[in-house]
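Every protein is a chain of amino acids, and every chain bends into a shape of its own. The protein below has been through that process, and both of its lines are reproduced in full.
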Amino acid sequence: MKVMVVGNGMVGQRFLEQLVSRMSGASPEVTVFCGEPRPAYDRVQLTSFFSGKSAADLSLVPAGFFEQHGIALRLGDKAVAIDRARKLVRSARGHELPYDKLVLATGSYPFVPSLPGAEWPDCFVYRAIEDLEAIRAAAGRARVGTVIGGGLLGLEAAKALHDLGLETHVVEFAPRLMAVQLDDSGGRLLRRKIEALGVSVHVSRQTKEIVSGTGCRHKLLFADGAVLETDITVFSAGIRPRDQLARAAGLSIGERGGIVVNDHCQTSDPDIYALGECALWNGRIYGLVAPGYQMAEVAARQVAGEEGAQFLGADMSTKLKLMGVDVASIGDAHSATPNALNYVFIDEAAGTYKKLVVSGDRRYLLGAILVGDAAEYGSLLQMALNPLPLPEHPEELILPAREGARKGIGVEMLLDSALVCSCNGVSKGKIIEAIGSGCASLGALKKETKAATSCGGCGPLAKQILDAELKKRGFEVKNHLCEHFNYSRQELFHLARIGNLRTFDAIVVKHGQGRGCDTCKPAVASILASCWNEMILKPKHAPLQDTNDHFLANLQKDGTYSIVPRVPGGEITPQKLIVLGEVAKKYGLYTKITGAQRIDLFGARVEQLPLVWKDLVDAGFESGHAYGKALRTVKSCVGSTWCRYGVQDSVAMAIDIENRYRGIRSPHKMKMGVSGCTRECAEAQAKDVGVIATEKGWNLYVCGNGGMKPRHADLLATDLDDRTLIKYIDRFLMFYIRTGDRLQRTSVWLENLEGGIDYVRKVVCEDSLGIGAELEADMQKLVDTYECEWKKAINDPEIMKRFRHFVNSDDPDKNVVFVTERGQIRPARPGERERELEPA
């Protein structure tokens, strides 16, 4: 049998893999026409091309795949005609080859609006690696880039331009971003979070024409009369099915395009199949890869002679991280079902929006939207797909957890038929079968089943099923950091320390594999800082850091940064207060006294950061580490020095503690407090480390925190003298730093620690493990090697090079706009911002 495949994209490659795995006996003679110069690669991860991945890294074709299975791959040879009567396909190079079964996996092409100027140089689409290469080349001579289209691909393209160091704009015709997946509230929050990253968003804007610019190469003219100048324009305004080949061959085509297929993915010619974005099933074209993969399996089974395989539609739920923002949409997200009820939770301070759509009788979940925090995606998706019964109070599924509240579902409730990975059609039963065949890690499970290898959204649920099944079988469950390290954070900490490993490269060579990811790199950066206390912006460490650490400052919603000098114990001299006022006045910054007894200065552009800090360092200020996973502050009351109720000098103790532990990196941020009496004005019992004065000394509390899930701290020891107090804090902090998981607060660490506070008390106070002196010595090394990061940064010319907004220009970001309110600046709101930016 001769099988011809036209197209070797993601779906075409999946068809080939399914076909060769299902053919028994004589293998078919398979030929693949591919118009691109390279075989299938991962278009879902296309943006990672700008963060260091090569075309080879993105390849979906195992080494030797075509040779091993005798498949003839014709790269760069586009199929141009189908002769259905003679059952031949003719290519652009003049080859005519026969087929018994023909599979069309021609995909789609980017839609470019028919507007004047769209054909100008430096106007691009965002579809193939060649497009990205052209965009990258153009970015080297550009300052501003604009994406027309605010859907999924548009935001991916915007991230690419932003990563290239361009001032980035997104123009969307609809009144919100991701109009198909999100509602108005979700779209508004997503816009706010993306604008906070420095990307300007223009919604409800119709581009009418592109003309020559004055300050930039292009000028976009909008229907409402507004204009926007840009050097690069990228069109990402949707896709259209690539159906020309089928149309010319006389196959049935939908009214608005797309090759009509039945439930077996057959076209109007039963010997020709169509898959993926070129196929129209039941009047619908599916623009995600998961339905295409399902079609590929159905067609492969049909061609292989299996009966009963059908494509009956696909779930369009999706979970993505767009420019670092988690976004998920599940099922009926827009409440289209009659009598549907909505549950909505918005936390603007935390930047999260969550919405549940449930049936009128509140028994089943119909859909959901998650923006800013998509941790519940896996469990909510399963509840919508299967469907599983809702709890008595459905809102608990999205509200911040409280003690005793039910969150999500247990994997035991899932039926074996439950679809875990919709991208690759992997059910819970398939995962259990793979585990029974020997898969004992998430990496092995991915390789065997392909679960969590496409969008990755099902990864946490697949890991839960894996852990649950391994425990049933009596195996020890490993808490591996990520796929690049088969170790937990705790284990990796010890390996780095014992092996004297001081760089990420050294650790990954000796104990890992691959190049690392956004999970393990910051975790290893934290481990290295906790072990060796080297400057985090040294060239060998800088690429590992989280976003804020890159500039030693907290990024704010309008793309500016905050300045937070350390003020130990909240005690500050009049002269230093004057300096802060003078600096704020000099650079036009917003000032605020925080709830943690510090003065924050907001609104600094990235190129101003070193200038501001030069003035502050000269005046004796140090970095407050508001940007780092480190000690933030030690809050204090005035204590016995001034207060008539105080029994100990809480200010002096708070200053001593803050000066001792400043700059020490840990799994998560830490806050501390010292109260001079049990009236607790410093709120010490809501801190990671809390100290409360007694008439006999100090009571030490640990593992409390505020935030989304407040937790009262646990009493560790009572009536301690100064020396013992510091010794116990040393031991506690180093024990937490050694054993905590990545991004795990002390409160969560304690709740997950077997033995709880009693075990911590034995380790810290009774030295049950015999490591007390070692923990103290490790802490003392960190204390002795402390250096202010900003003081080092402003004296290092290489580090100073990173503090500019554009990689190819010293110009500031002209899109930062402030308005005056209550005598100070604040970021302009969208309407105010657009008025300020309009040309005079």
